[in-house]
Amino acid sequence: MFWPNNARIAVTTSLMFEAGSQDQKKTFGPIPVAQEGDFPDLPTNSWFDYAANEGIPRALELFDRHGVKASSFMTGMSVECYPDIAREIVKRGHEAAAHGRRWAPSFNMAREKEKEFIADGVASVERITGQRPVGWNANAMRNSVNTLEILQELGFTYFIDDLSRDEPFIIPLPEGEICAVPYTAHLNDLHNLLNIYNLAQFELLLKEEFDQLYEEGAKRRRIMVVSLHDRVGTRPASIRMFDRVLDHMRRKKDVWFARKDEIARWALTNREHTPIVNRGPVGETGLPGPAAAVSRFVS
User: Fold this and answer.
1) Strands 176-180 vs 169-173: parallel, antiparallel or unpaired
2) Domain residues for 106?
3) Is the pTM higher than 0.90?
4) Which of 11, 89, 181, 207 sits 20 to 30 Å CA-CA off 213?
5) Is residue 286 in some structural domain?
6) Is 269 part of any domain?
């Protein structure tokens, strides 16, 4: 079986929880003109606050209506700023995953600093929600050459910072292995903020992507990612669009709406359909080398 109960496709929803962990003075936001000087960016900070006040509660209601369990990637500072929101996410059956200490890059940190950055966020999420994260997402999906080994040392099962496939796969490490549950760039709600496409175009794109992957799912393991950032895809109009998309998906038979930790565990346990990708040694560029070997059917 590709998926539990012979499901044709796994649909997994991401909810990024970053409110309160942004740089208070300079960060990416909805106002196109950068603020000059060393001052707090008040409107952009209020945009992040929208996530906890309005956005996440609205998204949780959407998930409940459709029986969807999401994976929420939480920064340590976000759960500390809004502990009730973090606990409510977990109370409703969603996964608490890790997103670092704050919404900031970690790929350029020294190895021990990066490990501390990741572990610190994990500790906050576990302390406040009672759930220890087993999944990781880096800021802007940018990890260092040390990250996967660090994740394994910290007890992670999977990470999502990969765009190379429409299925989960296993990466061998010097001490064991880790599962990749690939993310998405082109199906990301931030594209609406950047005006790359509008909501109508986004809705069509999501439905077309699902229909194609559903068709392919008859012959091979397929996943589709739906991504909501706490202050972007949770706006009223966006939620109505996602509502229609989920309705479209639910009209099909044998669709598994799964958390990412569930997908990773299934891929690791049911390995006959899980590719094994050996990334090879670190090359001269400082990046992992090309895949040295790929095996699709490993017993």
Assistant:
1) antiparallel
2) 4-261
3) yes
4) 89
5) no
6) no
Is the pLDDT at 296 greater than 90? The verdict is no
What pLDDT, in 10s, does the model give residues 31-70? 877 788 888 888 888 999 999 999 999 999 999 999 999 9
101-151: per-residue pLDDT in tens? 998 999 999 999 999 999 999 999 999 999 999 999 999 999 999 999 999
* Counted domains in the chain: 1
